[in-house]
Amino acid sequence: MTPAARFGDLGDGTYRNPVLAADWSDPDVCRVGDDFYLTASSFGRAPGLPLLHSRDLVNWTLIGHALDRLEPTEAFTAPRHDCGVWAPSIRYHDERFWIFWGDPDHGIHQINAPSIRGPWSRRHLLKAGKGLIDACPLWDEESGEAFLVHAYARSRAGIKNRLTGHRMSADATELLDEGTLLIDGDRIPGWFTVEGPKLYRRDGWYWILAPAGGVETGWQGAFRSRSFHGPYEERVILEQGATAVNGPHQGGWVDTPAGEDWFLHFQQRGAYGRVVHLQPMRWDAQGWPELGAEDAPGVPVDVHPKPELPAQPVTAPATGDDFPGGRFGRQWQWTANPRDGLATAHGGDGLRLTCVRSADGMRDLRRVPHVLTQRLPLAPSRVEVGLRLDSTAPGARAGLVVLGDAYSWIGLERAADGTAHVVHRFAEGPTADTERAAAHPRPAPDGTARLRIDIHDGARCRFLVDTGDGFRPSGQLFAALPWRWVGALLGLFAAAPDGAVPGGTGPAGTALFTRFRSTELSAQAPVTPVTPA
């Protein structure tokens, strides 16, 4: 099993990091009884606020989302890939689940529910403002007070490297003061970009666990004070050291029923996004948290004994999908709030997507909301899906895409004479707003194809297609790119040009996707050479 394998559980009582080998950015975690729950940033995708469940902190399943749609709805009718839901915190208090997050363009929000599966309340705007991010609450059982801490995004607020704290009403509907500057990173020698705070109370101390130094090369810090309002002293508790784990960055502390302490955090991995690591945690003689192995404290572990919790089946969030009855699994998210009619239910298996008529959809898939996406796997993987282009509208197209700052897709397109062709197209970085051909079109006699992408180390993607005579490679290798904060995505889409049907309005037909599969490639699997057609 390679370090990038999909499953963190090695099956022998140990685990290998990352335990979540895909882009579960800015994770936070809480425990309720014997169950652990994790949420993560979802940025501009819908549904938002993923909800994951585990019984052992190593094996996780995706059980749903807390946000059906992003609000304000008018702000997310088109993709805003790096905006939306940033760095949420999840807590259980007063027999309810609570999730707080910062939207850098609108402010700090919270939702709550009596069960992890909902129903979740409507979004409540707790603090309006630009650049307010990384919000975390604390209901202090010792004092009976409630508090909130948050950070700042300089791109909107004009400041960063600071953490502000508020007293908060017990029902989390209002803040009770103007806020206090708890931590000013500019006053701490060598510290910069303090962000992502998580707030706790332990042994009479207020604790803020917060990373600094930036997601690529920073470290995890701890701050403590006897008073919520400070002053706080600081310590670095996790850094890269001699390991390959750059960052390591932002996460959350959780304990087990047996009293063990663990810390989940992310590592930035380029096109793969922010993958999640699990660190053992202890408290030293001075009462500070100590992360990592006992014989190598302060640096991330690679392989380590699992938590002392009941054994669980080896699992990871689902990736494959047969689309029963036209429904798609929980792993899929639209690139913005979806409108009605993008996917239609039917009696059989397979995902029937409407060929949405849009000029944008014909020249730049980064700009349309009707791309259905899931996370790019960290493990070298083979992704396959069947496609039948049912639309007869000239110019109608559908395909499988690797979507990021640059993107590439392979699929089918309907010609003016009614025939279907395999097409492979790409768009370069964000300044390029039109697609280019990655390979010459070729006939797809019955309007069907099996599409494949082999994803090799470094997110190098080889596209292949089978129209009945076996898989054949198409075009050159494509190196996936992330957006600024978001890893690259795998996506399915269907589109048609404006005026694709008489009168220029109404549906332009559908495309049917079947048997989506994602399987690991051998670590030794060679990159498929291109054979000229």
TrEMBL record:
Checking SUPFAM superfamilies in the record gives: Arabinanase/levansucrase/invertase, Concanavalin A-like lectins/glucanases
Please state every residue range assigned to the domain named Beta-xylosidase C-terminal Concanavalin A-like: 321-497
State if Cytoplasm is listed as a keyword: no
Determine if Hydrolase is one of this entry's keywords.
yes
Q: Kindly state which keywords UniProt assigns to this record, in alphabetical order.
A: Glycosidase, Hydrolase
Quote one Gene Ontology molecular function term. hydrolase activity, hydrolyzing O-glycosyl compounds
* InterPro entries, alphabetized: ConA-like_dom_sf (IPR013320), GH43_C2 (IPR041542), Glyco_hydro_43 (IPR006710), Glyco_hydro_beta-prop_sf (IPR023296), Glycosyl_Hydrlase_43 (IPR051795)
What biological-process GO terms show up in the record? Answer: carbohydrate metabolic process
Family of the protein in this entry: Belongs to the glycosyl hydrolase 43 family.
Output this protein's name: Family 43 glycosylhydrolase
Report the source organism: Streptomyces tabacisoli
